[in-house]
Amino acid sequence: MKVLNIVGARPNFMKMAPIIEAMNKYPKQIEHLLVHTGQHYDEKMSKAFFDDLGMPVPDINLEVGSGSHAEQTAKVMIEFEKVCLREKPDLVIVVGDVNSTMACTITAKKLGIKVAHVEAGLRSRDMSMPEEINRLCTDVLCDYLFTTDHFANENLAAEGVPAEKVFFVGNVMIDTLLKHREMAAGLTLSRNLGLVPKEYATLTMHRPGNVDDKVVLTGILEALSEISEEIPIVFPIHPRTKKMAEQFGLGHFFNSGENVKGIWITEPLGYLEFLHLNMYAKMVLTDSGGLQEETTVLGVPCITMRPNTERPITCEVGSNVIVGGNKQKILAQAKQILSGELQQGRVPEKWDGHAAERIVDVLIKEFV
Ligand code: UD1
After folding, report:
1. Residue 6 and residue 117: Cα distance in Å, rounded?
2. Could you tell me where the beta strands, DSSP code E, fall in 119-190?
3. 343 C-alpha vs ligand 1 centroid, how far in Å?
4. pLDDT per residue as tens digits for the range 10-57
5. What is the pLDDT of residue 310?
6. pTM for the model
7. Which residues are designated catalytic?
8. 87-110 confidence digits (pLDDT tens)
9. What is the position in ligand 1's atom list of the atom closest to the CA of 96?
């Protein structure tokens, strides 16, 4: 079988890496090409992850770059259609919920090519999130839906997706985490920065809902600033957040000096460096989706600064708490963690490092 594996933006890379590795075990049965749409292109948003994860250089790069949603989606579709017509794959595999995921799914399906979605069925029920629209469009079109938890299976069943298209395989991002955990633990980054394990917090924030609105962003930064008086916060800042904070004149909230104190900003970090910082953090503050899952497995308390989550399993079994962008709620939850009141978590079913192998087993059975 011939497969095109699609990646576009930062969170896709760690999801695709174990799938490629699992496919490499079947060189006679599976021919696969890696297609990078170029949605993320900065060295620190893209190449750094390929290096850390030992991923092959993409066979094809569509180089679409940034743009409005319509522009970016359209550019991916135009370029990917040419690739599909030239390569004639039997299957296209997409991961996650970024614009590239949806764009490649629509393009392939319209050419009659089968599509598999890894991380299917997640729903926030929040249509103001571009990712929710991407998830819905992708899942309704896909032929194979690989899910990470029981909530995803229930969502797909409720939407009328036939059970024979759905495969509960576990979480490929956790495959990558478990593989690299020891390597990341051994880095000296936190020591080099003068950080004491469990005496600092990490932060990620880039959702348009949080960073594109001055009032919302200011409220969140006020809360974070108060927390950072008790515990330093390391913030590898996303390009979108950097751009918006500069535009709104909110740079005074950040410290970018030599010493880690206050809300301390760095360039985006590589996969291993950030995993290292998170595993030794007292808590993680985030609006990311993936980090809610990673902290669940690492056993690190997570404060999710969003009004909802498409990953409720992390609240059901883990130590994730949803607080929205509300200043008081963020502060209250952080205080609880700082005072040592921790919710104990456990690891969800099949988040065991073997999800990608299960996916490839299904594909071999279906196609070969
Ligand atoms: C995208 C995904 C989001 C994911 C996030 C991870 C969509 C709709 N959103 O959001 O789900 O959580 O990636 O990072 O697909 N930029 C750079 N360099 C880059 C990439 C982006 O400077 O390499 C800047 C550009 O100004 C760009 C902005 O960041 O306009 C936003 O990038 P974009 O890919 O549109 O969305 P993200 O916010 O990164």
Report:
1. 10
2. 144-147, 166-168
3. 32
4. 999 999 999 999 999 999 999 999 999 999 999 999 999 999 999 999
5. 98
6. 0.96
7. 206
8. 999 999 999 999 999 999 999 999
9. 11
